[in-house]
Amino acid sequence: MFPVVDEDGNILSAATRGECHSGSKLLHPVVHLHVFNSRGELYLQKRPEWKDIQPGKWDTAVGGHIDLGESVEMALKREVREELGIEDFTPELLTHYVFESSREKELVFVHKTVYDGEINPSEELDGGKFWSIEEIKANIGKEVFTPNFESEFKKLGF
Predict the structure, then answer these.
(1) Which of 16, 61, 72, 158 could make a disulfide contact with 35, Cβ separation 3.0–4.6 Å?
(2) Exposed, middle or buried: residue 45 (CB in 10 Å: 0-12, 13-18, 19+)?
(3) Main-chain dihedrals φ then ψ at residue 99, nearest 5 degrees
(4) How far apart are CA 25 and CA 129, in angstroms?
């Protein structure tokens, strides 16, 4: 179950994943983490070809839903551990905003961290790698990245 929230993150009710992703536009919270290394490169995950949304595209290092009963911080730590195998990191909250697509509406809590340790992408992903900011900018608009990542990258001004 996901919490259904207002634009400030206050819980109004609860709904299933299916209800939230059915085009209902029930606003539900998610976390994103941008992982930089000390050289200023940004780690991106590759979405597997079997994903129903944006298969094969490069995306934000970590993205996941906040479950009912979880805080933003709890969900962020869980998702980072599940997707990248990282246990010890210091997140910095950058912003939050509402993202809307044809299927859903999310309240996105965006964080960043600097991390130089080992990264072990889960089988949920098709791997990942660090990109220089110049490499990312050179590939914007070329169908390499998810539209959500491109929008957030531009919004944050990395």
Answers:
(1) 61
(2) buried
(3) -110, 130
(4) 33
SS3 for 109-144 is: EEEEEECCCCCCCCCCCCCEEEECHHHHHHHCCCCC
Neighbours of 26 (CB within 10 A): 21
Across the chain, which has 158 residues, the per-10-residue mean pLDDT values are 96 95 95 98 96 92 96 97 96 95 92 97 93 98 95 93
Q: What is the DSSP string of 12-81?
A: EEEE-HHHHTTT---EEEEEEEEEE-TTS-EEEEEPPTT-SSSTT-EEESEEEEPPTT--HHHHHHHHHH
Domains, the chain: 2-156 (3.90.79.10)
The two three-digit tokens of residue 48, written as one number: 């597997």
- Tokens in use for 10? 């206050």
